[in-house]
From TrEMBL:
GO terms for cellular component: cytoplasm. Residues 180-397 form the Arginosuccinate synthase C-terminal domain. Keywords: Amino-acid biosynthesis, Arginine biosynthesis, ATP-binding, Cytoplasm, Ligase, Nucleotide-binding. This is Argininosuccinate synthase. HAMAP family: Arg_succ_synth_type1 (MF_00005). One of its GO terms (molecular function) is ATP binding. The lineage of its organism: Bacteria, Pseudomonadati, Pseudomonadota, Alphaproteobacteria, Acetobacterales. GO terms for biological process: argininosuccinate metabolic process; L-arginine biosynthetic process; urea cycle. The gene is argG. Pathway: Amino-acid biosynthesis; L-arginine biosynthesis; L-arginine from L-ornithine and carbamoyl phosphate: step 2/3.
Length: 409
């Protein structure tokens, strides 16, 4: 339901056709002052054109901010501490960006005295949910404007017509309908819609933007190392890097070796299935390295508990509950598990594959004296295994004695 008593609104603004139309529509339909906010999350686009276009609309308060370091440090890295995958495959590149954009929108709204925020997400997708759950968690009384749920501009033809009627500049290459939509940030790019909607049809190579094909990757493996401190990566090949620079470096390695492609049919929170083509080159490398680091630094039961909670944690992020109390609770548990996850992992990158070839840590729980097949000099008494096995077999023996054979429960 539209709320018309709005005095000032902060719009998440990219400068593209959709959000430019939204900007003018807000000015005409609501008669309110519009503040624009454009975030650099590493999408690889020049953002100054967005500022200049906002100026053409007479916008007095324009925010264009580089949030790449904040994005990776405060959102991507905490998520990767959990080895997070939605439905076993998706590294949540779009999902994890939305709470940061929403958070900064609310901060700007408080700063400029705005009583509303607006976004350009459609009424069919997940992003509307992610944005708005975040808005309400951070500012319960905020007014939210979602134009795609209100206006009658339901086609690209209508958007273009509105743009022409309102003197909204549109570059020539944007007038034709794009064959698919793209969302990108420093963690990933996603492509979906139109020519990609049939899950039976393989995507054309032109769809991929962040990676070369595995077939075109070098015939010689690339070897790298990643250093971790308390669960977060801090260096590549011994060179200390900031969070955003480290992910950028891993993206370069992933791109050159055809790593991180995913063709996925997923279950959207709003109820439908959708097909997306994802590229997460650096994130795919980071996930493999982090899991390898945990194999020698995490206690077995602690690691298994953490893995059992991961699907729930992933679902919370995918569905837009980053700022929920349950996500914060899970994050506290996950972060506690990472205190010992420090050390170095060595990897080979080869034609779409990430292969661990070595891992070492000052906190390693791996003890060669215990696991050796040679003389362990009393580190492990093999006779103890007999009692261990008998105790674990007790319930099985009792069940068999009671006649519950053949797999009966």
């Amino acid at each position: 339901m539209a709320v018309k008593d709005v005095k000032k609104v902060v719009l998440a603004y990219s400068g593209g056709l959709d959000t430019s139309v939204i900007l003018r529509w807000l000015q005409t339909a609501y008669g309110c002052e519009v503040v624009t906010f454009t975030a650099d999350l590493g999408q690889g686009e020049e953002l100054e054109p967005a500022r200049r276009k906002a100026e053409l609309f007479g916008i007095r308060q324009i925010f264009v901010e580089d949030l790449r370091e904040t994005f990776v440090r405060d959102f991507v890295f905490p998520m990767f501490r959990a080895n997070t995958l939605y439905e076993g495959q998706y590294l949540l590149g779009t999902s994890i960006a939305r709470p940061l954009i929403a958070q900064r929108q609310i901060e700007i709204a408080e700063m400029v005295g705005a009583d509303a925020v607006a976004h350009g997400a459609t009424g069919k997708g997940n992003d509307q949910v992610r944005f708005e759950l975040s808005y309400y968690a951070l500012k319960p009384d905020v007014k939210v404007i979602a134009p795609w749920r209100e206006w009658e501009l339901t086609s690209r033809t209508k958007l273009l017509a509105f743009a022409e009627q309102n003197q909204i500049p549109i570059s020539r290459d944007k007038r034709g309908e794009a064959p698919f939509s793209v969302d990108a940030n420093l963690l990933h790019s996603s492509s979906e819609g139109k020519i990609l909607e049939d899950p039976a049809v393989a995507p054309d190579e032109s769809v991929f933007q962040r990676t070369i094909s595995p077939e075109a990757a070098p015939d010689v493996a690339t070897e790298i190392s990643i250093d971790f401190v308390s669960g977060d990566p801090v260096a590549v090949n011994g060179e200390a890097l900031s969070p955003a620079m480290l992910l950028t470096r891993l993206n370069e390695y992933g791109r050159a070796n055809g790593i991180g492609r995913l063709d996925l049919v997923e279950n959207r929170f709003v109820g439908m299935k959708s097909r997306g083509i994802y590229e997460t080159p650096g994130g795919t490398i980071l996930l493999a390295a982090h899991r390898s680091m945990e194999t020698i630094t995490l206690d077995r039961e602690a690691g298994h508990l953490k893995d059992s909670l991961m699907p729930r944690y992933a679902e919370l992020i995918y569905n837009g509950f980053w700022f929920s109390p349950e996500r914060r609770m899970l994050q506290a548990l996950i972060d506690t598990s990472q205190h010992s996850v420090t050390g170095r992992v060595r990897l080979k990158l080869y034609k779409g594959n990430v292969i661990t070839v070595g891992r070492e840590s000052p906190n390693s729980l791996y003890d060669t004296r215990v696991v050796t097949f040679e003389d362990d000099q009393g580190a492990y008494d093999q006779v103890d295994a007999q009692g261990f096995i008998k105790l674990n077999a007790l319930r099985l023996r009792l069940g068999a004695s009671a006649g519950r054979r053949g797999g009966a429960l």
